[in-house]
Amino acid sequence: MTDTAPAAAAVPLPATARWWRWLVVAAAVVVVDQATKALVLGSFRPGQELPLTGFFSLVLAFNTGAAFSFLAGAGGWQRWFFAAVAAVAVAIITWLLRRGGDRVYCLGLALILGGALGNLYDRLALGKVVDFLLFHYAGWFYPAFNVADSAITVGAALLIVDSFRQRRAPAPPAPPGNR
Questions:
Q1: Catalytic positions, written as ranges
Q2: Domain boundaries, the chain
Q3: Which of 25, 76, 84, 161 could be cross-linked to 110 through a Cys-Cys bond (beta carbons 3.0 to 4.6 Å apart)?
């Protein structure tokens, strides 16, 4: 006598049941981001720079604004504004991850989620975001950034790539007489 029922372990879970795995990716981004920031905070004074190559340095910088120091000179209200924007983004991205999608899409969302959480923690705990990666060349300097910013950028690039990918159209329903 053979058992024809599939074993529970052999039945794959739908993608929406595995959405929490993407939260592990986001958590890893937060851990790496916060660990690198703690290392730099413990090793550098504000503004101190350590050139590693002719075009890349480590530097301790703080940003009270958003990307490229947008609104950094505002009177302090921007801390709470950007924290609220990040909190809303975290909620929306978590909802999107629960809905599921392919791997590129979900990885992009998870990287953005981890980056948003890493910078949100800085805003709430320090009132500013810690930046330390600095690219420069012949007197030109790209604004300093951090691991969270890098994760957000890579995640956004993955979402853009994903938006150009071909999707399979769902199979048309069978005609009523062929069921």
A1: 131, 149
A2: 26-164
A3: 25
